[in-house]
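thread: overnight batch results

M.L. [08:02]
morning all. the overnight job finished for the chain we discussed friday. pasting input first so we're all looking at the same thing
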Amino acid sequence: PYVLLLGTLFGTTLVGSRFSVGQFEPSTYIGLRLVLSTAGFGVIYLLRLGKRTWPKGKQIWKHASILGIFGTAIPMTGIVLSLQYLSSGLASILITISPAITVIMAHFFLSDEKLTQNKIGGGLLALSGAVMLAGLGESGLTDTHGSILGYILIMGAMVSSSTMTIYSRKYVQDLDTIDVSSIRIFVAALIVMPLSYLFVGFDLSQVNSQGVLALIYASIFGTFLGMLFSLYNIQHFGATAAVMSAYVIPVVATLTGVLLLDEQITLGIMGGMILILGGVGLLNKS
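M.L. [08:03]
and the structure it wrote out:
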């Protein structure tokens, strides 16, 4: 149920983000999401829920800060920027490459998650689906041809995210989930929001009430709760099992994107999805 819920949260958040980049500057949108999510964690400590106090240990700040930069700020920025060139459905399909990247990296950095024939075959099959989509120039949008920049952004985000999945499994497994997540989001907000203001300013003149609601939804469900569930899954079920939410994300995002944002599903996209999910299926079987 945790995997199913996480996939649904991330899938619907992708669609909300795709809508929001039409109203917000992408970096402003990301920064506001992180700030609002940080406020959510702040409430937990302010009200001392569970008798919590703001974490102060050097180790937890070190590891959570690394996660905040490379596991949150960079992947979020890459994914949201890619939505300027790709549909939320196609982006969600490409995100399913994450398990393939993760299991390959886990072989080299985690002693308990070694490569098998199924993992190798699944990884290659999933990656071939992504290569096919890029080669066909699919975007999932009715009026835009797929840009290679969109693919580069989202693949870079997945490499960074997968690296931090391994890092979490190796160094953060025994640390408190809420404390790590709160520092992680706080550090990411501390980096993204000032840089966004410095380079693009802070213009909300194009934002309407629907944009505000999409931002709030993404902040609460995609960032605040999403980060908690993601880290919980990594700590309790392992790096490979944790990324299986990638099964759910493309189904949710593709269908929701078609219904709400007039995105399209082409034969090329369906072919790429079959290859990628088939590869992820082999990974899961192993």
